[in-house]
Amino acid sequence: MRRNVHVLGLCGSLRDDSGTRTAIRRALTAADAAGATTELLDLREYELPPRDGDDADAGDAAALRERVAAADAVLLGSPVYHGSYASPLKTALDYCGSDEFEGTTVGLLAVAGGSYPTPALEHMRSVARAVGAWTLPLQVGIGDVGAAVADGDIVDADLAERVDRLGAELVAYAGVESYPTAVTETFDPVTGD
Prior knowledge:
globular, 8 helices, two-stranded antiparallel sheet, six-stranded mixed sheet, alpha/beta, Rossmann fold, 22% strand
């Protein structure tokens, strides 16, 4: 088990009853169980106007960057809008860059009302790569969120296990640039064995 790892969940949904927030909370609970400290950064609590290029510190941008930079691993989670990730997350990421993300392990989670959200996950992966983050190969896409999430939790057992694994891998691989072969063969990030 890794020690002194801080995992930040960055939620791109502004809805009160959000399947994205539900999934991020579950992943953070798994990260906590794997020995990390965790934090959910709720973009509803931040004033972040669209980035215009002239004011890098508009609104709460400096506070956002500080919280992202302090994390050893970041979970980017977003609902899918028109085949991509949501504008609140895009705006937050526009205020961040390599100073906050370079060398940081990033996990990806996308939630869709319809089919599997492959394009949104690809778009988030491209942005993470552009700012120098190391993105976990494991990513979680939740399609048909209405059937997958109910009563504040993920009801599909296989999907719940995958979200738990994502949270555990954020802890296990925080600070690494690739999956070490020996770790892949001998370490189970879910159980810690």
